[in-house]
Predict the structure.
Amino acid sequence: MDISEWSIDKYNLTEEELQLTMSGYTPKAIKANEFFLKEGEVCGHIGYVIKGLLRSYFYDDQANEITTNFFPEGCLIISMDSFNNQTPSKEYIKAIEDSELSVVSYERQMEIYKLVPAWNQICKDLSDIKIAEMLKRTESFQTLSATERYQRFCKEYPQLLQRVNLGYIASYIGVDNATLSRIRKR
């Protein structure tokens, strides 16, 4: 979820509320190929990507990796269902590049909700954004050709084209590597 263009200013947080919020976040470094979250673990943190790149994925019934999201700089990293309900994750979140994050634990985020009531609305709004993103992606699988999905990916995520393995992009747009290769040759 890219929040780099989203503004917290509209919630009129006081300086004290901002300080309370920021005091809950700690730096975390993750090396390339290390996990932020593994399938079966409960998501105990929300991360904000300061530098680097991560991706989320799961395995289908034929043991193929299916990429579900990319998290470049300015994005929140969360397995929403696992974090919100404190249930085992169905996905992996792994660093593609060495990454620097700012993270907050589930427990601290629950405290922030109580100490800074505006965070309840902020999180609702962020959830609405995430749901809209998921619906848009689902709709693209139903209404766009593979070529159109690749073109949309290039338009929406140009900064990722040189940083992400083509196999991950193919998986994300729902095609195999050979199909993506043919699309790119055109």
Summary: The first strand starts at residue 26 and ends at 30. The two ends are 30 Å apart (CA to CA).
